[in-house]
User: Which sequence fits this backbone?
């Protein structure tokens, strides 16, 4: 982790996460395609494996997933001030847009134009998330154990009400036992 | 998160139930994470611009503090064999979770139109075509997701008419 950060680097972090915040429609997962583009492909700040780890941690602790993820990346790039820049970037679009809507008393729910635009955006987000999910699945399906673990988590999440945190904890326990306890005791 | 917001808001009498439902709808339809949008909105309704800022800082600060502390720990130990083993188990679980969330999002976006009053539960071919177009654009041609969102917004404006 870099301890010192220049003003230019802070600006770059802010811009990246401002764009991510401005084009995230929905919950934390809708950020993933944008993070892949802005953070990995354009700026090479992280790797696809690391993104998954940071995502898992962001989902496992209390708080807003989007803020957790931004703070994590910002902190990694430039310590405390990096975290401030990235977090401010990701929340500022919300502040500006919502304050504008609320102060102008724009009735967006009843507006036919907004609904039509939103329907288009929602379909796009479905396509974007599907693409990101497929990439993540192909990238993690590296062994038979990984495929089985992934399928179990998928099935439990679709068919039961078990909270995602417990599935992550379960995966951590399986990884620890299979790739540490069994391997070190076998030697 | 939404049940928590509802509980706190009702406790302080900040909003009526109908206002809460409206705010959730607006938070989903506007850019930005839903939780942040909702906090900003409730803050604004009760205390204007300052209220917005205070509410948004309030909802972000716990995340910020926890993550700054946690990431120090993570940086220090992430290459330790125990951590490497743990994350080898977490990654496929995340893939499973992300895949199921993707299906959930696709189902909501493509197979019903609760927002447009004219139809009930039905397959919407316009949405499906947009989603497939976006998928191909980013998967095959590496188009910037932001561009696909802007184009789909414009396409949606025209194809969902009437």
Assistant:
């Amino acid at each position: 982790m870099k301890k010192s950060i220049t003003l230019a680097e802070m600006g770059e972090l802010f811009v990246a996460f401002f764009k991510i915040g401005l084009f995230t429609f929905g919950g934390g997962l809708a950020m993933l395609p944008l993070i892949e583009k802005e953070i990995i492909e354009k700026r090479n700040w992280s790797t696809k494996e690391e993104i998954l780890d940071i995502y898992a941690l962001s989902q496992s602790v209390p708080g807003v997933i989007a803020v957790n993820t931004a703070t994590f990346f910002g902190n990694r790039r430039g310590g405390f001030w990096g975290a401030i820049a990235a977090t401010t970037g990701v929340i500022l679009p919300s502040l500006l847009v919502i304050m504008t809507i609320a102060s102008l008393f724009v009735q967006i729910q009843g507006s036919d134009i907004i609904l039509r635009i939103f329907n288009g955006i929602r379909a796009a987000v479905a396509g974007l998330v599907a693409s990101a999910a497929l990439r993540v699945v192909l990238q993690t399906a590296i062994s038979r154990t990984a495929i089985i673990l992934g399928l179990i988590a998928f099935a439990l999440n679709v068919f039961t009400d078990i909270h995602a945190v417990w599935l992550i904890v379960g995966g951590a326990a399986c990884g620890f036992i299979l790739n540490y306890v069994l391997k070190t005791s076998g030697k | 998160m939404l049940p928590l917001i509802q509980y706190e808001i009702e406790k302080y009498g900040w909003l009526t139930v109908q206002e809460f439902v409206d705010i959730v709808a607006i938070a989903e339809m506007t850019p930005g994470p839903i939780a942040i949008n909702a906090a900003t909105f409730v803050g604004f309704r009760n205390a204007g611009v300052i209220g917005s800022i205070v509410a948004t800082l309030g909802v972000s600060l716990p995340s910020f503090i926890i993550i700054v502390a946690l990431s120090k720990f993570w940086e220090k130990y992430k290459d330790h064999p125990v951590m490497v083993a743990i994350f080898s188990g977490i990654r496929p679980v995340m893939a499973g979770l992300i895949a199921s969330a993707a299906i959930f999002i696709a189902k909501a976006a493509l197979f019903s139109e609760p927002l447009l009053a004219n139809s009930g539960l039905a397959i919407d071919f316009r949405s499906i075509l947009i989603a497939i177009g976006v998928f191909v654009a980013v998967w095959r041609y590496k188009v910037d997701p932001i561009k696909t969102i802007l184009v789909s917004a414009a396409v949606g404006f025209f194809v969902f008419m009437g």
Notes: Residues 1-76 of chain B form one domain. The two ends of chain B are 35 Å apart (CA to CA). The longest strand of chain B covers residues 32-33.
